[in-house]
What does this fold into?
Amino acid sequence: MSRTTPPRPVDIASIFPELAPLARQAVRLHPRAGRPTVHDSSVGGPLLWPANEVWPACTKEHYNHKLPVSLDDVRQMRALLEAAWLRPREPREDLLDPDQRAYLDKLKAGHPAHTEPNALLPVAQLYLRDIPGLSGPEGSDLLQVLWCPLDHDEALPAAHLVWRNAASVGTLLTDPPEPADVEHYGDYVPEPCVLHPEVVTEYPAPLELPKELADRLHNWGEEQEEESEEGPGGAYYQYELSVAPGWKVGGWGPWSFRDPSPMHCRSCNTPYKPLFTVDSGEWDGGSGSWIPLEDREEPSGPTGLRRPSDPPMVQIGRGYNMQIYVCPTSFDHPHLEVMQ
It folds into this structure.
């Protein structure tokens, strides 16, 4: 099923013409639970990977605030909780019985961190044919995003980007290595999802606008709240009219709890541009107008462990975003990861 973002409640560029030249195209990916193959664009799905190409591993320093767990531990924890949430229960009946609780505690106990390189985990696979506006190095038609599912600098997983030509892959790697260590809560393990790409228009977050314009937008939002007696007030533009939530390609950065800082390529000093955003959810209580039309009807039964707004089950920080920026001068230059 395709996903359709409703029109914005207000055509903000007609009210504030200064915003019109700042409009950018973003592609909301709308990941939803599915069974993608190596020939599909996906989140958390298998990668089209050559059998004769070494699978990448992380050799960077990890910041383990709690003991890591295994990938299998995460899968078993999720399976246990999924079954528990889906089964019928009597009022006030515990979610887990004592044996299940003890088993879950055992899975969550973790293990000492391994010292050898940690195999990377597939995060996303994007065929350029599916993502309007996405382009890579000459001859490439596929972007693959992997990461080490442990905390690194800025309490983020360390991402690895691969651009390739799908037709040149040849014999496929069918049993890729898996990481020995995963972040304690499994927050960086995406569940397999198929994608429903959709182009939307974005405008800069208030923190990226001149202060005078940002102040006028804030005051305008408060006026709208006074007239309607509801809404987010001064944050109306921030939540509903500027940057789309959710996993996406391109667009603007979702700056909110931290100020934007100059971000320039370490190789050539060119300003970075946004490439790919990982989000902890596609909507929340403050961004209801972004809920796709197809997802507005309340589920008729139990939804299981997955929240309808977060099918990949990825959590960045306390519900934030991880945005990957790239250098527009060269795809060979290092990328940048930022929590926003």
